[in-house]
Specification:
Number of helices: 15
CATH class of the largest domain: Alpha Beta
Largest sheet: 9 strands, mixed
Distance between the termini: 63 Å
Strand content: 15-25%
CATH architecture of the largest domain: 3-Layer(aba) Sandwich
Radius of gyration: 43 Å
CATH topology of the largest domain: Rossmann fold
Helix content: 40-55%
Number of strands: 11
C-alpha cells in the first residue's frame, strides 16, 4: 500500500514538472500555408474572413462548406453574387468548374487567387499560368512591388515573405484585361486579370499569400487586398471554406489535437488513466490456478493394445491387420484395386509411387507369401514391418 502512495506521489510530481516545462517552452511559429479561415497562424485567412463585412459593406456573406458543384447545382437562383476562392493550389474538379462556368455565364462573378489553377478552367478561358515553385517563400526577404493598371490605384505595395512568383504568361486580349502586376528580378509580370465570360466575369489572381493573416497585419498590405476587391461589388459574397475539402478535421478530437494546451491535457488524461488501471489491476487481480495438462490417453491405449497382442503371441493377427491397413492405404491414397496382387498391380503401384520395382516386388510377394501361411511367428512380423517401413519412407 505504501508503494502505491509512493508511485502516485512521484507521478503527480512528474506531471507538474512536465506542465511547467511545457508552459515555459516558446511555441514555434507555424509558417505552413493553409489558407483556412479558422487558422490564426501566419498563412491562415482568419483575419480576412473576419473582415469580409468591412471589405464588402452592404453585402451578405455566406460560408460554403460544399464543393461548388454541390452548392450551385441545387441553387440555380444566384444573382448578383461573387464566389471567392483563396488557396495555394486550386484543384477544383471538372463538375465544379462546369457549374462555375454556368454561374458566371448567367451574370455572376468568380474570384480565384491561387498559385496554380485547374488546366480545364484555364483552357476554357484561353489563359495560361507560369508556375514557379523553385524558391523558398518563407526566406525570400527581398522587397517586391505589387501594383495595378488602374490609374486611380497608384499605390505600390512591397511584399517579401509569402510572395508567389506565378504569373499569367498568355491570355486572350479580346476577352481578358490585365488588372494588376508584380515585379521581381527586374521584370514585370501580370498577376491579376479579368476574363469576360457570358454575362459575368472571372477574376484570376496569382498572389494568394497577400490575403493571409501575416500580410493583412503587416504595413499597408491590407490596402492591397482592399484594392483587389474593389472590382467586386455584388450583393452576395460566397466564401469557399477550406473545411469543405476535408483538409481539416471537424471532430472534437481533431480540434483537441490541433491545440497545444488541449493536446497536452489529453495526453495527461490518458497517462493518468493507464497508471490508474495498472495499479488497480495489480491490487485486485486474483490468483490464477495452475491447470495440469491432460494426458494423451490415445498413445497409452495404443501401447496397451500392442503389448497385449505381443504378450499373447498373436503374431498372425498382427500381420493380418498390418496387411489390411497397408492395402487400405494403397486404395485410398493411390486409387488402386488391391483385390488381386498380380504383376499388373505391382506395375501400377510403381507408376503411382515411384518406388523401385525390386522393393515393390519384394513387399508384395512377401504379403502374398504371408497370406498363404498358416503359421506365422515374430520373425515374419518383423520382416513385414521392415518392408512396409521401407516402402513408406520412399513414398514421402
Amino acid at each position: 500500500m505504501k508503494k502505491v502512495y509512493l508511485y502516485t506521489g512521484v507521478f503527480i510530481l512528474l506531471i507538474v514538472a512536465l506542465f511547467i516545462i511545457e508552459s515555459s517552452i516558446p511555441k514555434p511559429i507555424d509558417w505552413s500555408p493553409t489558407f483556412n479561415e479558422t487558422h490564426k497562424k501566419p498563412f491562415g485567412t482568419f483575419v480576412l474572413h473576419s473582415e469580409l463585412q468591412n471589405l464588402f459593406p452592404g453585402s451578405s456573406n455566406e460560408d460554403v462548406f460544399k464543393t461548388p458543384y454541390e452548392k450551385l447545382s441545387y441553387e440555380n437562383n444566384c444573382h448578383n453574387t461573387t464566389y471567392l476562392f483563396i488557396d495555394g493550389d486550386n484543384s477544383l474538379d471538372t463538375e465544379s468548374i462546369d457549374q462555375l462556368l454556368n454561374f458566371v455565364y448567367e451574370g455572376n462573378k468568380v474570384f480565384i487567387s491561387a498559385c496554380s489553377m485547374p488546366y480545364y478552367l484555364l483552357d476554357t478561358l484561353d489563359v495560361s499560368i507560369k508556375e514557379q515553385h523553385d524558391y523558398d517563400l518563407n526566406n525570400d526577404s527581398i522587397k517586391k512591388p505589387l501594383y495595378f493598371s488602374n490609374k486611380k490605384l497608384t499605390t505600390k505595395y512591397e511584399f517579401d515573405f509569402g510572395f508567389s512568383r506565378s504569373y499569367f504568361r498568355k491570355y486572350n486580349t479580346k476577352t481578358t484585361q490585365a488588372l494588376g502586376f508584380h515585379s521581381f528580378d527586374n521584370e514585370e509580370y501580370v498577376n491579376y486579370i479579368k476574363v469576360n465570360y457570358g454575362k459575368g466575369n472571372f477574376f484570376l489572381h496569382t498572389q494568394p499569400f497577400a490575403f493571409t493573416n501575416y500580410h493583412l497585419l503587416k504595413d499597408n498590405h491590407a490596402g492591397y487586398v482592399s484594392d483587389v476587391f474593389s472590382y467586386l461589388d455584388n450583393e452576395t459574397i460566397l466564401w469557399d471554406s477550406k473545411i469543405n475539402s476535408g483538409e481539416e478535421g471537424t471532430g472534437n478530437l481533431d480540434f483537441i489535437l490541433r491545440e497545444p494546451s488541449l493536446r497536452f491535457a489529453w495526453r495527461l488524461a490518458l497517462t493518468g488513466i493507464l497508471i490508474f488501471v495498472f495499479f488497480m489491476a495489480r491490487r485486485r487481480q486474483r490468483i490464477v490456478p495452475v491447470i495440469e495438462k491432460l494426458p494423451n490417453t490415445s498413445v497409452d491405449f495404443v501401447k496397451t493394445i500392442g503389448n497385449l497382442y505381443y504378450q499373447e503371441g498373436m503374431a498372425k493377427d498382427i500381420v493380418t491387420k498390418k496387411i489390411t491397413f497397408f492395402l487400405e492405404r494403397i486404395r485410398n491414397t493411390y486409387l488402386i484395386d488391391t483385390s488381386v496382387l498380380n504383376d499388373d498391380f505391382k506395375k501400377r503401384l510403381q507408376q503411382k509411387t515411384g518406388v523401385p520395382d525390386k522393393d515393390i516386388n519384394k513387399l508384395i510377394n512377401y504379403i502374398v507369401f504371408l497370406n498363404n501361411m498358416t503359421e506365422i511367428n515374430e520373425v515374419h512380423l518383423i520382416d513385414l514391418n521392415k518392408l512396409i517401413d521401407n516402402f513408406n519412407r520412399k513414398t514421402l
